[in-house]
């Protein structure tokens, strides 16, 4: 939490392996990649190896475990895909992204505004040196945090990837993701 907002938790860093509920493993069946409800990216071992060998930048991987109430933790043949690079803030020309419960840090609780078309815009200079896998500075989703991390519901960043990574997902037959093109404005 050292670099995180004390009010909403935006910027918190994951320090452990990914642990998923053993009761929910059916969600992963027959899939090559999946996202948890907190936008953690999971890929099967083979896809993780393909990504690692592709030379794509900005990635790290963590182990994924299933937790069962009585039987403990078991490692799964999956990896969590993590981003090592955080993007600068989006351009104010972005539309359809609004904080529904603004935090003083200005970084969290962004959500989709249904009535306005979603346009994610970045300044050209801000994406000049991005990696193949990145996360947004803005954190999305609901926030419930009263200082107790174990009880917290944290927001999460979105992933921004280059076409190189998108193609690897597509060629692996990964489905179930929304791929939203971003727009670049000249500085
Ligand atoms: Zn905050």
Question: What's the SSE blueprint?
Answer:
Layout: E1 18-21, E2 33-35, E3 41-44, H1 45-53, E4 59-68, E5 72-83, E6 97-99, E7 110-112, E8 120-123, E9 133-140, E10 156-161, H2 163-171, E11 182-185
Question: What does this molecule look like?
Answer:
The structure is a single chain. The protein is mainly beta and 187 residues long. The chain has one domain (18-173). Helices cover 10% and strands 33% of the residues. It is built from two helices and eleven strands; from the N terminus they run E-E-E-H-E-E-E-E-E-E-E-H-E. The strands form four sheets. It has a five-stranded mixed sheet, with helices on one face. Strand 4 and strand 5 (72-83) form a beta hairpin. The longest helix is centred in the first third of the chain and has 9 residues, at 45-53. The protein is globular, with a radius of gyration of 17 Å. The two termini are 34 Å apart. The model has no long low-confidence stretch (mean pLDDT 94). The structure holds zinc ion. Zinc ion (ZN) binds at residues 5, 7-8, 10, 103, 105, 107-108.
